[in-house]
Amino acid sequence: MFKKIVIFGVGLIGGSIALALKKHPEAPHIVGVGRAQQSLQEALDLGLIDSAETDIASALHAADLVIIATPVAQTPAILKAIRPYLDESTIITDAGSTKSDVMAYARAELGDQVNQFVGGHPIAGAEKSGPAAAMADLYLGKNVILTPDAQTSNSALDQVSRLWQQCGAVVSHMSAQEHDSVFAAVSHLPHLLAFALVEDLAKRSNAELLFKFAASGFRDFTRIAGSHPEMWRDIALANKTALLSELRLYQQALSDMTALLEADDSRALHDLFEHASRARNDWAKSKIQ
Ligand SMILES: NC(=O)C1=CN([C@@H]2O[C@H](COP(=O)(O)OP(=O)(O)OC[C@H]3O[C@@H](n4cnc5c(N)ncnc54)[C@H](O)[C@@H]3O)[C@@H](O)[C@H]2O)C=CC1
Ligand SMILES: O=C(O)C(=O)Cc1ccc(O)cc1
């Protein structure tokens, strides 16, 4: 178990790591470093962290792990700021939703200490953000992807794996590039579609009427459009190439569906819905087991 952990960004993701670790008998001392004094104070009041620091040198003194859980575009500045205070055994990891950008930032900012960096991404979260949204059981049974490369130290990788296992998660490894192409399809694209649909309706002159009668299907499809704007701006820009390719595939799927509807192709529409419905139900069943 780590003895002193510094978390940059004590919101939903960083705060949930802190709460999960606090359930262990030998819980580490957890220091929070934040951008907004108010949310750091909230994290202290909620008992997510043991102390709050604004001074990076004191925050990092004798720290054995640094976790970056901020929007991904904050990563290079944080790595630059901590570099002078890292000793040779301090491990650095992150929880960002994109990984090629983060791995490149680590190579650019950490120099010969890049082997101490382990890229990570918990596949668990919510449309809610901030310290008050943190949950001790957020990671129970959930996947965490780590993206080691040829330079990553095995010992750092093992220790970060164990940290996530202590939070109840199931750890897998992938290259950063594979990670970004998988999550462009199953996470980043759906979030953009939800934002696009809500925005399209919200801009219409009869938006009030539309929202008044929208029901559970709309709620399910658009829940994630309530997510944090800065976080999603950063994810979209960081994973732009993979996301643009998913958007093009989706546009083609919409064009194909439009053509079927225009042609009143009842049989093809039914087959498409049947195939998609079976795939969705099989996926949901496989998640319950
Ligand atoms: N929300 C989700 O469901 C998931 C989010 N992630 C990733 O985790 C990261 C954090 O997301 P959340 O916890 O949801 O966001 P959040 O908004 O709940 O928390 C982020 C915290 O970082 C702080 N912050 C921002 N810039 C900072 C800086 N330069 N230095 C120190 N603190 C700073 C903010 O004040 C905030 O308290 C993001 O990179 C996101 O892509 C990963 C998996 C799931
Ligand atoms: O709210 C939801 O259902 C999510 O999908 C949360 C989420 C958001 C970003 C991630 O990188 C991983 C999980």
UniProtKB/TrEMBL annotation:
Provide the Prephenate/arogenate dehydrogenase domain boundaries. 3-289
Which regions span the lipid bilayer?
none
An example Pfam family from this entry, by short name, is PDH_C
Q: Which domain of life is it from?
A: Bacteria
Entry keyword set: Oxidoreductase
List the PANTHER family hit by this protein, alphabetically: PREPHENATE DEHYDROGENASE, PREPHENATE DEHYDROGENASE [NADP(+)]
Any idea what this protein is called?
Prephenate dehydrogenase
Please give the organism: Methylophilus glucosoxydans
